[in-house]
Amino acid sequence: MAVLVTGGAGYIGSHAVAALAERGEEIVIVDNLQQGHRDAVTGGKLYVGDLRDADFLETVFKENKIDSVIHFAANSLVGESMTLPGKYYHNNVYGTLCLLEKMIEHNVLRIVFSSTAATYGEPENVPIDEFDRTLPTNAYGETKLAMEKMMKWFDVAHGLKYVSLRYFNAAGAHPGGKIGEDHSPETHLVPIVLQAALGKRPHISVFGEDYETPDGSCIRDYIHVSDLAEAHVLAVHRLRGGADSAIYNLGNGQGFSVKEVIEIARNVTGREIKAVIEPRRAGDPAVLVASSDRARKELGWEPKFASLDDIIRSAWNWHLANPEGYAKG
Predict the structure, then answer these.
(1) 140 tagged catalytic
(2) Bond before 285 cis per omega within 30 degrees
(3) Does the pLDDT at position 162 exceed 90?
(4) Is 67 exposed, middle or buried (0-12, 13-18, 19+ CB in 10 A)?
(5) Which bin fits 24, alpha (ψ -120 to 50), beta or left (φ > 0)?
(6) Phi, psi of 267 (to 5 degrees)
(7) What is the pLDDT of residues 6-27, one digit of tens each?
């Protein structure tokens, strides 16, 4: 029986595919390559197509014996979601509806969902736990919450069991150096800092240094992408064991500031990285850190790359070897 990984040619999805392959799992990958890369796929069978294409999706399910799904496929840029909300509802929400209906049609009743801590919006508590209020402040987070709710009602109606994993910032690269992070445009802090170290950017912008944090810059969760991939695999195993649907946060529990990320990147790379202080961005909370106590207890999840040094070093090794990212096309 195979695990279907949607968005499996993307950043986190490709690391999940690698983690599954290392366990000898049969893997089927669906990706429209809008943001994914063929060269990021290190195992399994790749189908290039869109979840909203009913004939394409039917072919995938007919040609493979799928028992579980890990669902990464989604648009995920917060800023873009605020200017193009229709794109996010159509791809994220409607795409998920198409997937869930096809799963029910083929009696595939287990799904692990790559969600986001953006479902919480402005946090009431730090660290955030799974029972805190969900009130997204952007269309991206709103669509992810809608996808979670859809899964809940498919569970009620059809017995579809799901695990939703909420987290903030994935970072780093596979410890073997074979896959890493390559977005266009790049919006994530760690690769942007490393692009500055490579001389591909003149500087890194720090948006605000007057927050109520130890060094005045925003604090965020950074989790190694391989640790996130491992959590998705553990969630598949938990559902296969007959567990009920659940939501888990994935976080490091402490968070790192923007200035800390830059300073550690300077130490890891041995290169000068110019930082320019700019005005705050609207809607940036001072601290966003998630508690992962429940995931550690129930999934048995234990991050292997807890230090920011390890996370950035793995990313730097990949960027040094692949300064232009993956081959395009």
Answers:
(1) yes
(2) no
(3) yes
(4) middle
(5) left
(6) -65, -40
(7) 999 999 999 999 999 999 999 9
CA angle 316, 319, 324 (to 5 degrees): 165
Backbone torsions φ then ψ of 95, nearest 5 degrees: -60, -40
Structure-token pair, residue 304: 């292997």
Buried b (16+ CB within 10 A) or exposed e, 267-281: ebbeeebebeeeeee
Q: Is residue 214 a contact partner of residue 257, using CB atoms and an 8 Å limit?
A: yes
Using CB atoms within 10 Å of the CB of residue 9, give its burial: 0 to 12 exposed, 13 to 18 middle, 19+ buried: buried
pLDDT band at 286 (very low <50, low <70, confident <90, very high): confident
- The residue from 88, 120, 140, 248 that is catalytic is 140
Instruction: pLDDT band for 122, please (50, 70, 90 cuts).
Output: confident
Task: Give Cα 165 distance to the centre of its chain.
Answer: 9
Beta strands at 161-167 and 246-250: parallel, antiparallel or unpaired: parallel
What is the model's pTM?
0.95
Name the burial class of residue 218, with classes exposed (0-12), middle (13-18) and buried (19+) by CB atoms within 10 angstroms of its CB.
Answer: buried
Q: Are 56 and 32 in contact (CB under 8 A)?
A: no
